[in-house]
């Protein structure tokens, strides 16, 4: 983040660009004013109202070109009614259509709807039948419906609702029975209710709430007994609704509510006594609530945490005189704030930068100094620059540009009207890569103009190229534990400037992670039309189980904001390992006994690992605790569902005695933290075989009590055996079973002592010394 502060605090420079404003269309031909106003963006159209000599003030749209600037509909065709003006106003988008108020012949001011075309523009309902004015205003969407205030001629200015159909447009409640207006106004949604100011005719203008039904509409609190509290300026912060109101004792001061009567309280009497501080322009910055108020020394910037002690003045730009701070623009969330304040040099544009310890509300510098100008207005942020109109003795009122992201320069893109006369620029709107505004070049009157702007817009796109919107979820789906799943998003600068500034992404919690990589040399600037890669990773390991979700913030400077939030989600597929030997399943932590094995003899047992669960089973390792008599090959493998792999375990003792070891097989099976344990046991006995011209596997047990087993490496076709006493006397003999590789002798009848066993076949011999117990 430091890079951007350094550039922002660099020396301001004044330059003049070659780019100049262009008149889009002379809507009212000649020197008369069409006065385009009420700009409202609707998809790829900018709606507005403008006046023509034949149609009056009607609904227009533009795409920023002359050919694409057209009258949508002449709504009022009666020249004797309001001079033929429909005066469209109060635009709001609801269900992908634009609703507004307009006046038409025979109907007065009523509720209209448009899709931006002439054929798609019509009156929704004549709320006040006949030529009377329903005058719908203060529209807001709540619980999927459109609420507004209107007058049906019987119930004057009351709460109405619409679902966009004629049948679904109706009165909610008559707050002030009779022909007097309840006048619900300043609507805002808070705590899943609709809050507003209304007058029931008994308690004056007070705080009300509604759940959208008549039964659920009620006064929250009578703040001023017997008079009008007139609450307004509603702003939600930290789970409470702040506003200003007058209780008749302390003037218009700072209040808040949690939505209940008892929770509706005065925060502080800022201007002590009966005078009013009239708090206004609430905004949140760096997790603090700020507003403008007058404690008797003029309007200044204040902050509050919700109680009297924390409600304090932040700073005073203009000394003893009021600075009247206004037009607050946060271009970098919780980090950069621009505002206009009055000084002894006139109205100036200031920058404030936030710090990690909270906002440092000391103006860093004034943008206006190098312009030698005053009274900045109509401020627009385009992602790289602030554009605004200003007054200058040499140019009048024209447009200036301040390069926020990189340059730190103030420039004048060009004048609508050359010289000191001024073009009276007003209502600057950002529309795509254009600034649309009203201006007067003294030849065409007040008309529609444009200026190509330096813009930066961020877009996130998924691997299929689909747009990822704010608060969308990127779903990895089920991922097998032990596997890293990657999804690569593309960050695109679709603006005109070469300086979309990327601040980075926040850290995600395991098993998620994110990283940004750039194709160019600079790891923060994203030139247009270049892009960067945002790689998301979901890597669940043995200890992760279930479903996971996390929140990722991508920080940037863009015309559409400074932060995009997306959610990442993924779930784990948990395979299950089954361990068996010779078809018999082994339980976890069970024993595998090798029995008696002669020293220096390798005895091998084989176990099978099978994936009996879902997804892929990852076998990470197979290891022992560290003994030397047992051994196992390290196993790393991946098994699909139903697949198996064999694991050989060897017992090769070199000394006599009992031995044990612990086999640990680590897999992506979550049971027992992924560990499958097998306890290995074995006993090393005397290795009596000393002549192996006849290859022999083992002669055991030794010492022997009764049955003696002889195991050869291969089957014997023609052989015999003989048992001798220690003195050399032949005691027993017999034929070796034809084609057998092993044979057992019953020596239970022999007395305790030492013996010698011989097995031969032709010229091949094996001799073993035995001990009978």
Give the helix/strand layout.
Blueprint: H1 2-8, E1 13-16, E2 22-25, E3 37-42, E4 45-52, E5 56-62, E6 70-73, E7 89-94, E8 97-104, E9 108-114, E10 122-125, E11 137-142, E12 145-150, E13 158-162, E14 170-173, E15 185-190, E16 193-199, E17 205-210, E18 217-221, E19 232-237, E20 240-246, E21 252-257, E22 265-268, E23 280-285, E24 288-294, E25 299-304, E26 312-315, E27 326-332, E28 336-343, E29 346-355, E30 358-360, E31 374-381, E32 385-392, E33 396-403, E34 409-412, E35 426-431, E36 434-440, E37 446-452, E38 458-461, E39 467-468, E40 473-480, E41 485-493, E42 500-505, E43 512-518, E44 525-526, E45 531-538, E46 547-558, E47 561-573, E48 577-581, E49 584-586, E50 590-598, E51 603-611, E52 617-624, E53 630-632, E54 637-639, E55 644-651, E56 657-667, E57 675-685, E58 689-692, E59 696-700, E60 707-716, E61 720-725, E62 730-735, E63 740-746, E64 753-761, E65 764-772
Parallel strand pairs: 1-34, 40-47, 50-57
Antiparallel strand pairs: 2-37, 3-4, 4-5, 5-6, 7-8, 8-9, 9-10, 11-12, 12-13, 13-14, 15-16, 16-17, 17-18, 19-20, 20-21, 21-22, 23-24, 24-25, 25-26, 27-28, 28-29, 29-30, 31-32, 32-33, 33-34, 35-36, 36-37, 38-39, 38-41, 41-45, 42-44, 42-46, 43-45, 46-47, 48-49, 48-51, 51-55, 52-54, 52-56, 53-55, ...
């Amino acid at each position: 983040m430091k890079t951007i502060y350094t550039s922002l605090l660099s020396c301001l420079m004044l330059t003049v660009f070659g780019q100049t404003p262009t008149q889009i269309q002379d809507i009212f031909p000649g020197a008369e004013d069409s006065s385009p106003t009420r700009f409202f963006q609707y998809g790829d159209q900018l709606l507005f109202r403008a006046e023509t000599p034949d149609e009056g003030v009607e609904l227009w749209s533009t795409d920023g070109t002359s050919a694409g600037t057209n009258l949508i509909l002449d709504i009022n065709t009666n020249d004797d009614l309001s001079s033929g003006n429909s005066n469209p106003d109060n635009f709001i988008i609801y269900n992908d259509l634009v609703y507004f108020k307009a006046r038409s012949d025979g109907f007065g001011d009523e509720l209209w709807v448009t899709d931006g075309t002439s054929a798609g523009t019509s009156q929704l309902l004549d709320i006040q039948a006949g030529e009377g004015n329903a005058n719908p205003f203060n529209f807001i969407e709540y619980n999927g419906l459109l609420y507004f205030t209107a007058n049906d001629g019987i119930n004057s200015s009351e709460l109405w609702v619409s679902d966009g159909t004629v049948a679904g447009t109706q009165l909610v409640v008559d707050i002030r029975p009779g022909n007097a207006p309840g006048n619900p106004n300043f609507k805002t949604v808070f705590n899943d209710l609709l809050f507003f100011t209304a007058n029931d005719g008994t308690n004056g203008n007070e705080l009300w709430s509604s759940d959208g039904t008549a039964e659920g509409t009620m006064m929250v609190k009578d703040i001023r007994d017997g008079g009008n509290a007139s609450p307004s300026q509603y702003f939600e912060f930290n789970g409470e609704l702040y506003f200003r109101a007058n209780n008749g004792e302390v003037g218009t001061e700072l209040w808040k509510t949690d939505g209940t009567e008892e929770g509706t309280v005065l925060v502080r009497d800022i201007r002590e006594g009966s005078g009013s501080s009239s708090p206004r322009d609430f905004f949140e910055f760096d997790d603090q609530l700020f507003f403008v108020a007058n404690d008797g020394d003029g309007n200044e910037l204040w902050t509050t945490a919700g109680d009297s002690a924390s409600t304090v003045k932040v700073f005073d730009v203009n000394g003893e005189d009021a600075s009247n701070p206004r037009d607050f623009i946060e271009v970098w969330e919780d980090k950069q704030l621009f505002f206009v304040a009055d000084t002894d040099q006139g109205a100036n544009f200031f920058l404030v930068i936030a710090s990690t310890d909270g906002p440092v509300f000391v103006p860093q510098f004034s943008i206006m100094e190098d312009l030698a100008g005053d009274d900045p207005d109509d401020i627009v942020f385009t992602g790289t620059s602030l554009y605004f109109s200003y007054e200058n003795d040499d140019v009048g009122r024209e447009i200036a540009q301040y390069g926020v992201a990189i340059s730190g320069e103030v420039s004048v893109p060009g004048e609508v009207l050359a010289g000191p006369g001024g073009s009276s620029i007003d209502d600057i709107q950002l529309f795509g890569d254009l600034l649309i505004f009203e201006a007067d070049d003294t030849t065409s009157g007040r008309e529609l103009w444009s200026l190509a702007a330096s813009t930066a817009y961020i877009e996130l796109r998924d691997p299929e190229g689909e747009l990822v919107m704010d608060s969308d979820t990127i779903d990895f789906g089920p991922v097998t534990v032990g596997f890293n799943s990657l999804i690569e998003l593309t960050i695109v600068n679709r603006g005109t400037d070469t300086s979309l500034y990327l601040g980075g992404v926040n850290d995600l919690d395991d098993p998620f992670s994110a990283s940004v990589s750039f194709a160019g040399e600079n790891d923060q600037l994203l030139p247009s039309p270049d892009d960067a890669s945002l790689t998301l990773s979901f890597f669940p390991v043995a200890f992760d189980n279930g479903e996971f979700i996390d929140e990722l913030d991508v920080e940037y400077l863009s015309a559409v904001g400074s932060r995009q939030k997306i959610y990442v989600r993924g779930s784990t597929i948990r395979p299950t390992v089954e361990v068996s030997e010779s078809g018999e399943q082994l339980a976890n932590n069970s024993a595998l006994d090798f029995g008696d094995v002669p020293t220096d003899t390798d005895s091998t047992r084989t176990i099978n690992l099978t994936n009996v669960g879902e997804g892929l089973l990852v076998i990470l390792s197979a290891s022992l605790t560290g003994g030397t008599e047992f051994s196992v090959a390290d196993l790393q493998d991946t098994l699909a569902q139903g697949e198996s792999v064999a694991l050989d375990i060897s017992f090769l003792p070199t000394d006599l005695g009992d031995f044990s070891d612990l086999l640990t097989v680590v897999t992506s099976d979550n049971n027992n933290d992924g560990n499958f344990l097998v306890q290995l046991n074995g006993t090393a006995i005397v290795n009596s075989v000393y002549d192996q011209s006849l290859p022999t596997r083992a002669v055991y047990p030794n010492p022997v009590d009764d049955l003696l087993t002889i195991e050869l490496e291969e089957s014997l076709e023609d052989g015999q055996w003989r048992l001798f006493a220690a003195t050399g006397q032949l005691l027993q003999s017999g034929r070796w079973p034809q084609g057998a590789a092993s044979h057992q002798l019953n020596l239970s009848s022999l007395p305790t002592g030492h013996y010698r066993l011989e097995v031969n076949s032709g010229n091949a011999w094996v001799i073993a010394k035995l001990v009978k117990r």
